[in-house]
Write a structure and sequence with these properties.
Four copies of one chain form a homotetramer.
Chain A: E1 13-14, E2 24-25, E3 33-34, E4 37-38, H1 39-43, E5 45-48, H2 49-54, H3 77-94, E6 98-102, H4 103-106, H5 113-134, E7 137-142, H6 161-180, E8 185-188, E9 194-195, H7 203-223, E10 229-232, E11 242-243, H8 248-257, E12 264-268, H9 270-275, H10 282-289, E13 293-297, H11 316-328, E14 337-339, H12 350-377, H13 379-387, H14 394-401, H15 406-416, H16 426-436
Parallel strand pairs in A: 1-2, 5-6, 5-14, 6-7, 7-8, 8-10, 10-12, 12-13, 13-14
Antiparallel strand pairs in A: 3-4, 9-11
Helix pairs in contact in A: 3-5, 5-6, 6-7, 10-11, 11-12
Chain lengths: ~425, ~425, ~425, ~425
């Protein structure tokens, strides 16, 4: 038989491009080598616990639509464990080696901090066993500092120091359990670190507090010899009107301003990137170029919708631009491609959970093949290199080396006059890219 | 008589709130003191040369609509001087003490750099005379690195070093003439410093070059004992698809990354801010809070339009949030409120140039009165102060001082349990603000 | 004492513009006559039941924040009645004469249709009593066809006829109870009548079904001698990706296509209008001009946010453009200004419910005063009339009468040549409008 | 040799999917039959005159970038003819059988209407010869009522009847020349038929005038036995803030309101569709479903940019949704796929004109193959049919036939109770679509 929770779903296998079986991979062949590395090591897929095991299809206008036979919707520890069992069956059948969670996803929040922490401890032991049994690893843990009403005015940036203290207590606990479970990173998403109205907000004081908390967390990490890479996940808005970690570069500005730029990288979510007005791939590429791309929440949004839809990605061309950046930086390091995605609330069958992941994994596997082929054939990279070649020697090289002056520039023009026009050839680049997709 | 160029427009006078004369100020009373400073010194109004004296109403779908009797539309020096005469008549009649220009606004571009520079020199002498005669001063000059086709692929970030050299030659000249004319600032707007397609672009190499040019300019400034404050003007897009100086915080990230944060401030344009997805006032406030607000291009856009409309502002409530930030930082320093605004292309009467400025100046003058009254009465500032008062003593103060640890936080919660809920009261803040508007 | 449920809130009184009491009206003086009609009869304010008595501050990222001492959050009839009592105390203290509801707001949904209907019957009797006792009237009722999971794929446009049948059963019941309670209108909001993905959707067949249901409802209305005005409320998206009633004109297209244009008017919500890419006032004005403005859900959104925020309005200038349209059509008829608004989820005090409404009512009362003054003074209307005066006689009049031909036009140009240029003077219009605000 | 104007560009041939020659088709094989029709007859490609032969790369921030050796940029008739020769060489080398123009694209505007018309007559004779020689046909002509300053306040909706008369004179002439050249359609794009500010605008009177002009044009068409299909091209905004023909359904509302729905179809431009907040394919599909899809301006925009970029399309998946609608309605009738596209202003080489078209034609040819294969294999269409099958018999069929009542619906629920839940399976549809792309 095929397991306890999803008996009708087999282990998903690679069957090649012509397969019409929706429960097979057409492009993802985990052990296949691409550019000197196994596909699974380039892609480092991860399933997220919240959407796939805690999300039930509620939206601002409707009640939950999804019933799972393994989830009685109670807050009992027994239910929490049964959900974990189901989760690891899904991870294993998909062949995904990583997962991610918020503290409140895996264990019920208690009436007090102590009770919540006790629940966490029990579940962490349980997850440890499941990890050992299956070989599935923790990509990262994070603290949920946005669902509980106490955080309505912010967590690290709450006007009330008492709430900040509560948030920090959660951070401390997550640092501990993440370490225990071997979490390779630890994510900070400041969902309510921002403002609804600038009229009642002291934004400078709030940002100062946020930086202070990050410093406390770093200190605790160092004192306890923890190694998880700290990651900040930018988002421009929702639930707040304006979130302080608006996008990759706003977050980099924050880190530099407070001297934190060496201790943090970014966890980029394309759906957040498009909400900030940038292309799907932009924040991945810009972070990567500045050595700040730590991990990716590999979802997609709808460019015409103004909220986070967290959809499973299905556009190999867009994904190929992301995988290109990943290849160019030599891989994701301790990060991964985490499916911060939810099946649509109308996709209510259990099997839809698998279909969503299989489609997304194949989208990124196809993207990896495309990006690798582009680099191996070299046409597009060569065109770009040639385009900037005036900086490889002579006057241009002097500019790159930082030794040219304004006077040198003027002299160069006096001697060489007007530059020649060179076409940017965008349509040609687009056409050639289509050869690979 | 009333001048040569606008004979039917009198000197605009303050006539008080009940005036129905569109050629009078209802709120702007330049010498009146508000919070210890003259209105004109808080507001430091400036007229821009390009929209008001070079813009003629062309748009992407239509030819110019505006004829000016003082502009024969030739590229002659005589025409350039007549335009300058008209400009100074307008400045004087409005009672505005500052103006701003791009190099190509004031003097025709020649066939060679030498010829362009010669034209500039002649016009600079002419403007010096007009400045002396009228007392009008130069708020800032800047280089036009976007109109000429040579800059189609960027100026400082052009893939061709030859173009970069040309752009730097223009910068050198503008540094010189700005200094000669006593320009209090110098602005860099990177209109084409960005990309149309990420497919043909090496964004890291381009940003490196941009930083290198800024360093050349700083060196030249220092070596020549110039004092103008350098300002960068962010804009998210248009004409490029993505501009590297996307918004205030992206620009701050750039400055920190390249070690330039001490030598530059920002020139914030609200229309650019809303194009980046932020409220009108956001980039002014965030820049101000981090000591980076240098000057303001006091226009407005339409939040439903996706392009720069550069409209004259007419919303005193929005402007009051900006003036609040200006008051809180003690004034604009060497900066000003520069009307980077154009009359609509359908507003073709000469007098519309005056009406646009009078309406905008009154909007900001009214805004100053509102913002000052809010501070003098103290209700809203007091509510905000009270909201954060838990950080003024005890545990909260320890957090602000940076001496609290995660362990302290946890201990605080163990002792004090769940925080009390405190309403954010946004509707009350909005209601009270309406008392002042 | 001041009532059972909000003991600390007095009856809200008009205290004039200088009042600093947040629980007083500065502009709303219900019995005062403006342009021949009492303020309350121009404004016809209405409180909505769902946000103010059923909303608790949940958002997509957070649990409810609001506790009401009169609501034990159970699904009991007793609780439903206590909420109704509290609601009528709020209506009465505000001095609002209308309210609105969805069927599921006022009575708990049962396990079967019969049980739900039985609950409704009991609550309708209860509300009848409260209406009689207080004089508060029902502006409109509507059916909730979006919250229950059965409607996840649409109600009237569900691919399953079974679901359509269920939706129609609810409509039938709401027609009955709305009639019984004297509801002056009946609203259809097609929250899930649209698509999430065009890939799985037959949009034509779905729209045909929607029209068929409207015809069934009309037939039932006529056969039962009901008089409520049917209203459709457009919205572009959310919860669906694309809603068929996108905006006012899309809905008018639908009504015409299916021959329903005489039997329906529109209920316009400014927040939905801005989500569709139009200005706050646009859909009110365009509907009004074509005789289709039936009622207004008087809220506001944030033009930079891509979802429905349903905020209490606080911009008198925008509201004045809406009230201008209302004055121009002689009033709202059977419609009203219904506050489809919710206090922010951070505004958790009971009194915030009052502050939100008081601020909004004053915004619209101030707007009415502004719009009336503009019409009474006549400056702006006169400028517009003059602008189009070429159509009042001669050739222009012939065009308006529909008797001119293309040949006439050509002849006119042959005789008269090029037209003179006339400035649109937008800045002057904006300046003059500011005189009134 | 390969022609006079583009000597280095050969006739573009179909070379199959593996071709790496940018001047070859990989997918477009004009004579190949797909679903019973030649590819060229499904696609009916058309080149537009304005972008490709009159556009020179100016943008709101920059001067023209493109020099064409065959265009001396004068307004002479000789130059106009040389441009026409070059155009027909490009049409022929691409193998495109249709073209489109505005009156002012093909012949210089004169000082008077008479002079303009005389220029047109001369050029029409010239084009007739070129059409005969090459077999290239006119898809549609249209009148430019937006570039000349006289139209700054609108053409058909201008507040000045004199301007309306001028616009109508142009319409009359275009009707004549379009007829003479065998134009199969005639397009109305109301670029300035809208408002910049609602404050100075009587929108009802303006829309009435627009309808009146359409009626004059219809009358003239009928009286002169012309057969061109009239088409309206919707656009939401730009150059105006709000254009009356906002999108497909707004335009349909307008046509119905004024009784014009039988005499007009729509010319849909995907870039305009996305500017209106809809998906690329939405307006094509919705128009098609209601029998209103007349022709397509086959370009694309950038969903993150708020202005019309008129790019050559390069996304076969999006284009396949459009071609699916075209197949489902049995072809485009008298319409075509007109490339209302411009090469980027940085794409300054002559050959870029070809590369842009070749890439776009291949995108749509590939799309046709995808859409046909989806229909031939039948998997996706079958899933949709099954999804709505409850309406094919029994109660559902009664609903479709319009004979069910609300009472029937209630009875159905009383007998059948709660419907079963059926998953929408969006992820499965997306995955299967990816099999074809």
């Amino acid at each position: 038989s095929d397991g306890e929770f999803f008996p009708n779903v087999p282990k998903i296998e690679y069957k090649g491009e012509d397969s019409k079986d929706p429960l097979s991979y057409r492009f993802y062949n985990p052990e296949e080598e691409i550019m000197g590395k196994k596909m699974k090591d380039w892609l480092r897929f991860s399933v997220c616990y919240w959407h796939t095991f805690r999300g039930k299809g509620a939206d601002p206008f409707g009640f939950p639509t999804m019933k799972r036979h393994y989830d009685d919707e109670s807050d009992s520890m027994e239910n929490a464990k049964r959900r974990a069992d189901a989760a690891f069956e899904l991870f294993t059948k998909l062949g995904v080696e990583y997962y991610t969670f918020h503290d409140r996803d895996i264990a019920p929040e208690g009436k007090t901090l102590e009770e919540s922490n006790k629940n966490l401890d029990e579940m962490v032991d349980y997850l440890m066993e499941l990890q050992k049994k299956t070989g599935v690893k923790l990509l990262w843990g994070t603290q949920n500092l946005f669902s509980n009403p106490r955080y309505m005015n912010g967590a690290f940036t709450n006007p009330d120091a008492h709430v900040l203290a509560y948030a920090c207590s959660q951070v401390k606990k997550v640092l501990d359990i993440n370490h225990k479970l071997g979490g390779e990173n630890l994510v900070f998403w400041g969902g309510r670190e921002g403002y609804q109205s600038i009229l009642n907000t002291d934004i400078k004081r709030e940002c100062d507090h946020m930086a202070t908390v990050f410093k406390m967390a770093l200190k605790y990490k160092q004192e306890n010899n923890m190694t998880a890479q700290f990651l900040i996940e930018p988002k421009p808005r929702e639930p707040t009107k304006h979130q302080y970690d608006y996008d990759a570069q706003t977050t980099i500005a924050f880190l530099h301003t407070y001297g934190l730029e060496k201790d943090f990288k970014l966890n980029i979510e394309p759906n957040h990137t498009t909400l900030a007005g940038h292309d799907f791939e932009h924040d991945c590429i810009i972070s990567s170029k500045y050595g700040m791309l730590g991990s990716i929440d590999a979802n997609t949004g709808d460019p015409l919708l103004g909220w986070d839809t967290d959809q499973f990605p299905s556009d190999p061309k867009k994904a190929a631009l992301v995988m290109g950046a990943v290849i160019d930086q030599g891989g994701l390091g301790s990060g991964g491609l985490n499916f911060d995605c939810k099946v649509r609330r109308e996709s209510t069958d259990d099997v839809d959970l698998f279909i969503g992941h299989v489609g997304a994994m194949d989208t990124y596997a196809r993207a990896l093949r495309i990006a690798a082929k582009i680099r191996e054939e070299g046409t597009l990279p060569g065109m770009i290199k040639e385009r900037y070649s005036s900086f490889d020697s002579g006057f241009g090289k002097k500019v790159e080396e930082g030794t040219a002056t304004l006077e040198d520039c003027e002299k160069y023009i006096q001697e060489n006059g007007e530059p020649e026009q060179r076409s940017g050839k965008q349509e040609l680049y687009e056409m050639i890219l289509n050869h690979y997709v």
